[in-house]
């Protein structure tokens, strides 16, 4: 593999202000990538941009709420206006919900999760795809193990990630002769603070790290795996051994798998 596969590669990263998106931006900057970083938090984006510049990357920041189709279109158009092309799109922006479905008073939060996690990826991909075809580029979806497994809570997060999985898997087949690669990433819990930012049924953030996130995979380990997968244009990456075993168990003993999921679910 080329030691610098992303040198001057034009890369859009959504959800780039923190967590996986932030660390991916830093990793690509070290490769000399030309970055377009998107998120809602402008202050955090500016800090990430500063660090990327220090690591040798070229950076623009484009404040974006991926739940808004027009803002996704603007992200793509501004990136092309700056760099003249798009080589890689990493759909990473995501939002968590910590609630049982029957605890939701209405579907507002459920719809928001679908809008951000699923439609945000669809919107960005729709507007970027013509440019990715021109460069035979890379299309990446950061999903979750909940995009492969059911959960003990039907809160919308898992549904949004399952939808991502089907969309990108089908799109890979559709694009087979286009030169565009499609990579889907399935992390388990990663230490990014995402559980503290998840929304409860009352609309308030949990404000605390869940027991599952404590001691989970480091964000550095996660992003290193993503970097290698994207560089090699892999189809998909199931990150943990537990995930791989879980897929096997789900296939041969689905009831036992359901019982394990129910016993190990914790919304704290």
Detailed description of the structure:
- By secondary structure, the chain is an alpha/beta fold.
- The chain has one domain (10-264): Rossmann fold, CATH 3.40.50.
- It contains eight helices and nine strands.
- It has a seven-stranded parallel beta sheet with strand order 3-2-1-4-6-7-9, sandwiched between helices.
- Helix 4 runs parallel beside helix 5.
- The longest helix has 28 residues, at 108-135.
- The chain is globular.
- 43% of the residues are buried.
CATH class: Alpha Beta
* CATH evolutionary superfamily: NAD(P)-binding Rossmann-like Domain
Alpha-carbon Rg, integer: 18 Å
- Supply the helix-strand structural class: alpha/beta
CATH architecture descriptor: 3-Layer(aba) Sandwich
Write the layout of secondary structure elements.
Blueprint: E1 10-14, H1 19-30, E2 34-39, H2 42-54, E3 58-63, H3 69-83, E4 88-91, E5 97-98, H4 108-135, E6 138-142, H5 157-174, E7 181-186, E8 199-200, H6 219-231, E9 236-238, H7 241-252, H8 254-264
Parallel strand pairs: 1-2, 1-4, 2-3, 4-6, 5-8, 6-7, 7-9
Helix pairs in contact: 1-2, 1-6, 3-4, 4-5, 7-8
């Amino acid at each position: 593999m080329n030691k610098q596969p992303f040198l001057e590669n034009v890369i859009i990263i959504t959800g780039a202000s923190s967590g996986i998106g932030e660390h991916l931006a830093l990793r690509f900057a070290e490769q000399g990538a030309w970055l377009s970083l998107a998120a809602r938090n402008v202050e955090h984006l500016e800090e990430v941009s500063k660090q990327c510049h220090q690591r040798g990357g070229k950076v623009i920041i484009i404040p974006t709420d991926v739940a808004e189709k027009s803002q996704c279109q603007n992200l793509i158009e501004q990136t092309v206006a700056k760099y003249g092309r798009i080589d890689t799109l990493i759909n990473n922006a995501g939002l968590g919900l910590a609630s049982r479905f029957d605890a939701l008073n209405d579907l507002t939060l459920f719809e928001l999760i679908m809008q951000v996690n699923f439609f945000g990826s669809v919107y960005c991909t729709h507007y970027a795809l013509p440019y990715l075809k021109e460069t035979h580029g890379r299309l990446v979806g950061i999903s979750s193990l909940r995009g492969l497994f059911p959960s003990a809570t039907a809160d919308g997060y898992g549904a949004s990630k399952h939808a991502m999985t089907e969309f990108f898997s089908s799109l890979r087949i559709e694009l087979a002769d286009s030169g565009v690669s499609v990579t889907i990433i399935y992390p388990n819990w990663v230490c990014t603070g995402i559980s503290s930012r998840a929304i409860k049924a009352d609309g308030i953030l949990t404000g605390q790290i869940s027991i599952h996130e404590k001691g989970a995979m480091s964000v550095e380990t996660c992003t290193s795996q993503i970097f290698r997968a994207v560089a090699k244009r892999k189809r998909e990456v199931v990150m943990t051994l537990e995930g791989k075993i879980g897929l096997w168990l789900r296939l041969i003993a689905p009831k036992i798998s359901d019982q394990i999921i129910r016993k190990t679910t914790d919304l704290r």
